Amino acid sequence: MNDVLARLRELRSGDLPTHGGRTLAYVYDSGVSEVDEIAAAAHALASSANGLDPTAFPSLLRMENDLVARAAGLLGGTAATAGAITSGGTESCLLAVLAARDARPEVASPSVVLPETAHAAFHKATHLFGVRKIVVPVDPETFRAVPSAMAEAIDESTVLVVASAPSYAHGVVDPIPEIAAAAASAGVRMHVDACIGGWVLPYFAKLGAAVPRFDFGVPGVTSISVDLHKYAYCAKGVSVLLHADAELRRTHYFASAAWPGYTMLNPTLQSTRSGGPLAAAWAVVHHLGEEGYLRLAEITREAVTRIRSGVAAIDGLRVLGKPESTLIAFTAEGARFDLFTVADEMKVRGWYVQPQFAHRSSPMNLHLTVTAANRGSETEFLTDLAASVASAAAAGPVPVDPDVAAFVASLDPATLTGEQFRGLLAVAGLTGGAGLPERMAPINALLATASEPLRERLLTEFLGALYTP
Ligand SMILES: *Cc1c(COP(=O)(O)O)cnc(C)c1O
């Protein structure tokens, strides 16, 4: 047993660190040492239990109802608020779309109205569930949804309107009250995607921050998603989807008596559901409690405030919009250096920051997810960031061969064969088996010249190459 665990530890040592605040994407670290231990112990106690049948495992039922009630309490819910625990933010968003679609069977070609900053999970939902997406431009300065444009996009086919609190890409909160009013007056459901902000913005508000209204206190909001595996600092695999009432939830429930086995009854997309993530989340939420989360929000707010003003003060960097939460996106001012080289330089200095490609009014940028674990090392981070910018400036722009760029720009992903894709990947340096190159900037510079459909296809092929045993 020790052998295999030693091997696992060895494998894990090659990963990005999940603690200590050096990885500013994908991971959420409270910096509270016993949280991991509690989560692991609770996970072990319940991972053999199966949420498929809540009557067989009433502990899971009890913990789920308890967490839904906690989330509802935090997000302006009422006695009528109902919910479900899902495997993550994407599943919560998928179910919001599914419930909205199936509540309107009379609509022949249902559509969802999304601001262009809505999370990609909604694009996935429309893709999976055969719903049309109506994507509405956001304000190019603030990156917030424009209520009048959202309202205009609503028509008889609209089954759901979506807005974010905050958006992942820029960390800004959409004008929820205005958008929800437009949805309500059209008789359409309104989902607030608070996957990343739902467990931290209410605490920011309690600390006196001017947080825009986004919860069930806003008339017209019919559902809210909030991920416990983000700012509730729970182990991965847990999100909450809340509905203003149980009737709104019913249409994402699934039942099948049409086979000889047990009558399948699923509140979510999963059927067998491990009790592990749920129990781990329940234990962490109760351990940290109101006081714990308030304190963590305070620490996080200090860290994000320091980092935001520090980034803005670095010559050549500009923060996008006015981030109101725990996320910061910044771009390069002028073309004196390549921004994605800055990410590589940060990696050399032991930090992971996330590159985001340009999309519509949003220029290419680097994205930071700030957590409580970043408090205390802001100066070190900012010093290394300034040094990384200086190194990137010294290195100059990343050259993309104009012939290669022209060739890439001319490609149509719909007509390329698998073999041609693999050839392209090799040109791009994305071969999978050999692992990733140390420096991603040259690859990202080439990918940035590709159309979005081509980039999607290229990276899908790359994923397939990675997942080859
Ligand atoms: C993280 C996130 C999601 C998706 O959540 P996953 O847990 O990664 O599936 C959806 N919306 C927003 C705003 C998010 O930040």
From TrEMBL:
Co-factor requirement: pyridoxal 5'-phosphate
The keyword Protease is assigned to this record: no
InterPro entries assigned: GrpII_AminoAcid_Decarb, PyrdxlP-dep_de-COase, PyrdxlP-dep_Trfase, PyrdxlP-dep_Trfase_major, PyrdxlP-dep_Trfase_small
Gene3D superfamilies membership: Aspartate Aminotransferase, domain 1 (3.90.1150.10), Type I PLP-dependent aspartate aminotransferase-like (Major domain) (3.40.640.10)
Pfam families: Pyridoxal_deC
Keywords: Aminotransferase, Antibiotic biosynthesis, Lyase, Pyridoxal phosphate, Transferase
GO molecular function list: transaminase activity
Record keyword Lyase present: yes
Database matches in PANTHER family: PTHR42735, SPHINGOSINE-1-PHOSPHATE LYASE 1
Family to which this protein belongs: Belongs to the group II decarboxylase family. Sphingosine-1-phosphate lyase subfamily.
Name of this protein: Aminotransferase class V-fold PLP-dependent enzyme
Originating species: Amycolatopsis ultiminotia
